[in-house]
Amino acid sequence: MQKIVFVTGKGGVGKSIYAAALAQKYSLKGKRTLLVELGDESFFKTFFGLPQVQYTPSKTLNDFEVALWSGSEALKEYALHLLKSEAVYRLFFENKVSRALIQIAPGLPELAILGKITSGPRHHGPSSPHEVIVVDAFATGHFMALMRAPKGMAQAISFGPMGEQSRSIMKTVEDATVCEYHIVTLAEELPIKETIELYDQLKTEFNISADIILNKKLNTQLQSSELNSGNNEFVKYVKETLAREEDARTRLKERNLNPSEVPFIYDKTSYELIEQIAAGIKL
Ligand SMILES: Nc1ncnc2c1ncn2[C@@H]1O[C@H](COP(=O)(O)OP(=O)(O)O)[C@@H](O)[C@H]1O
Ligand SMILES: [Mg+2]
């Protein structure tokens, strides 16, 4: 059975890096793995120095594959799958009116993306050869819109293939034997606040228990005696950072949340960064 791992969190906290490290880890374990980024622009193209990252998966130097899935492409693929003809597709979709309609239909691109991501376990649409799909998903707010799209559509159109597909996608994203959710955060006030809010929303709306990843944990060589006696700007910075981390852990612990921690990696190439983070991940 294909496994799907969603990675989300506030913008800039390290979602993409952590998602890539997870893909690396699964790949090292011998799983055929696809790392998927969502949206219109590829981060991994530059990060991994690849000629291109497209809708169709391509290989990275690290063995796993990478793809970029946008709402419009996912929608097109799905429509073509239903209509079975490029000419009919163009007739219906490639005109001003339907383009405008697709843009205003709430959640339609999001629904198509989730449909694409979950098509393997649902045995619907083109089959995928991957054992694990790691999704470098949208940041917090847009991520919830993605999650809510199937429910919204199932309520708006409860009949026919659209209603049926929406319900099947909804069931799959809520199935803990298929999907995992990782919320990446930094040990800072706002990301922690957003993380707890997102955790609660996933729990109450979908009964999903997400894992929390505390990223960029400071590893200091300084002994506690040096920290206590030292008084320069650097020592002050280290002390403040450690205090902030402790505070973040306490706030999560108050909610019975026990984060996995990922160290801050200094001065490394993209591939070394991913490899070092992957080495610390326990699956
Ligand atoms: N554990 C880490 N150690 C060092 N640098 C990191 C770590 N995690 C993320 N970064 C850096 O932080 C920046 C933001 O990470 P990124 O994964 O692009 O965030 P997001 O996808 O959440 O916007 C990048 O420059 C990345 O290289
Ligand atoms: Mg990113």
Description:
- With 283 residues, the chain is α/β, with parallel strands linked by helices.
- Helices cover 53% and strands 15% of the residues.
- It has a single domain, classed as 3-Layer(aba) Sandwich (Rossmann fold).
- It contains 13 helices and 8 strands.
- The protein has an 8-stranded mixed sheet with strand order 3-4-2-5-1-6-7-8.
- Helix 3 packs across helix 6 (108-117).
- The radius of gyration is 21 Å and the shape is elongated.
- The relative contact order is 0.16.
- Bound molecules: adenosine-5'-diphosphate (ADP) and magnesium ion.
- The site of adenosine-5'-diphosphate has 14 residues, from helix 1 and strand 7.
Task: Provide a quick synopsis of the model.
This protein has 283 residues and is an alpha/beta fold.
Mean pLDDT: 91
Strand content: 15-25%
The CATH topology name reads Rossmann fold
The largest β sheet comes out as:
8 strands, mixed
In one word, what is the shape? Answer: elongated
- Derived structural class: alpha/beta
- Assembly category: single chain
Q: Describe the strand arrangement of the main beta sheet, using strand numbers.
A: 3-4-2-5-1-6-7-8
Report the CATH superfamily: P-loop containing nucleotide triphosphate hydrolases
Poorly predicted regions are: none
Range of helix content: 40-55%
Distance between the termini: 17 Å
Overall strand count: 8
Backbone CA Rg: 21 Å
With helices defined by DSSP (H or I, 4 residues minimum), what is the helix count?
13
The small molecules bound here are:
adenosine-5'-diphosphate, magnesium ion
Question: What is the domain total for the residues?
Answer: 1
The CATH architecture can be named as 3-Layer(aba) Sandwich
| SSE arrangement, N to C | EHEHEEHHHHHEHHEHEHHEH
CATH C-level: Alpha Beta
